[in-house]
Amino acid sequence: MQITVAEARLLKNAVSKKLHDLIQDRSQIAYVEFEKGEEYTPHARTFQVVSAEIQQVRNHYRAVTKALAASNLRTTIEWKGEKISIVEALELVKQLRAEAEMLQEFGNSQQVERIARGAFDANVVYKKALFDPPAVKKQAEKTEKEANRLSILIDKANFNAAVDLDFVEEYQ
């Protein structure tokens, strides 16, 4: 069945949740407590059955991950006059957001600030920014907006790109 990359990302989350639930189930049915001399009631599903289901869901998770990775490599977007893959665009968004956050910290600093060394230190020490904090703060905002624009382009591409997965209906 063919689904969009955006839907495949949701499917990956559903498969991950099912895997987590099955692992918890297996832990719960792995043992049974009973008193000496008494009979116990076996669980409805066996350890082996749940283990087989876990293996199947793990296979599905790897298939979704592989399909998304392949799509992200072959799907391209136009960014600043060149075509880049979604993989590269995702990395660039991370870098832009990290840079914006760092610039924001620099931009929030004072041009000159007094540093208190301690109660018994009579020396007055200052820290001077070797950049223009308001200008750096504006650059941070510009970089964050750029990351947002790129993220929107990635989302649009993911709604147009498709992947083929034959087990989608098991999770919907």
Point out poorly predicted stretches.
Answer: none
Helix content: 55-70%
Mean pLDDT: 95
Taken from the alpha-carbon principal axes, the silhouette is flat
Number of helices: 4
* Cα end-to-end separation: 12 Å
What can be said about the biggest beta sheet? 2 strands, antiparallel
Radius of gyration: 27 Å
What is the topology, as strand order, of the major beta sheet? 1-6
User: What is the number of beta strands?
Assistant: 6
Structural class: alpha+beta
User: What order do the helices and strands follow?
Assistant: EHHEEHEEHE
Residues in β-strands, percent = 5-15%
Would you kindly provide a written description of the structure presented here, covering whatever features stand out?
The protein has 172 residues and is α+β, with helices and mostly antiparallel strands. The chain has four helices and six strands, in the order E-H-H-E-E-H-E-E-H-E. It has helices at residues 5-29, 47-74, 86-107, 133-160, and strands at residues 2-4, 76-79, 82-85, 112-115, 125-128, 162-164. The strands form three sheets. The protein has a two-stranded antiparallel sheet. Strand 2 and strand 3 form a beta hairpin. Helix 1 runs antiparallel to helix 2 and helix 3 runs antiparallel to helix 4 (133-160). The radius of gyration is 27 Å and the shape is flat.
